[in-house]
């Protein structure tokens, strides 16, 4: 296979693009800081990111894949920082703490499972777990699909995360093909499709903020 000759290059590109993707959360945190509140911002991309990074890190150790290990350590650290910022600006910290508690219990259960499962089965079965969870995280913004359609506005969706996620899933798809790992291939093939579907919403229903900016630019020209 031609891609196998470029395994290291593809892996490094995927790793650095993913790190850039994780840094895109700074744009959302900047907006939270400017507003002085995290109201109206969904915490699950950050909180879910923490949980998935922990589980993906455990899976990466099973595979002994340095690219996956590095990127998930980086992702864990950045999402913890984002979540701290979200919490500090949250209007209802009790609700945030409840979410953190639920995600913590959920992650601990699967970490314990990975520890007690038979070594011959754990890689395959844990691979299924992280694949499903990763896809749920990628598809999380679609939970707001009804709101987007009703309001014809995509302001509620995290565009930076979705756009970068599209690039990341495509590169990890290539990497999965080079190392012939079915879970990485499935994760990112479906992830790429979901990300493209979410990006299409920004074309169909531009955010009101974007519409206002375009109107202002048109007024200045006139």
Q: How would you describe this protein?
A:
The structure is a single chain. This protein is mainly alpha-helical. Helices cover 82% and strands 0% of the residues. Helix 2 packs parallel to helix 4. The radius of gyration is 19 Å and the shape is globular. The N and C termini lie far apart (57 Å).
Overview features:
222 residues, mainly alpha, 10 helices, 82% helix
Secondary-structure map with pairings?
Blueprint lengths: L6 H17 L1 H11 L8 H20 L2 H23 L4 H24 L2 H21 L5 H7 L7 H21 L2 H23 L3 H14 L1
Helix pairs in contact: 1-4, 1-8, 2-4, 3-4, 3-5, 3-6, 5-6, 6-9, 8-9
Short description, anyone?
The chain has 222 residues and is an all-alpha fold. It has helices at residues 7-23, 25-35, 44-63, 66-88, 93-116, 119-139, 145-151, 159-179, 182-204, 208-221. The chain starts with 6 loop residues before the first helix and ends with a helix.
Nearest-integer average pLDDT: 81
**Percent range for β-strand residues:** under 5%
Tally of individual helices? 10
- Please identify the structural class as seen in this structure: mainly alpha
Report the radius of gyration as a whole number of Å.
Answer: 19 Å
Main pleated-sheet profile: none
Uncertain stretches: 210-218
Shape: globular
Strand segment count = 0
- The H/E string reads HHHHHHHHHH
Distance between the termini: 57 Å
Work out the helicity level.
over 70%
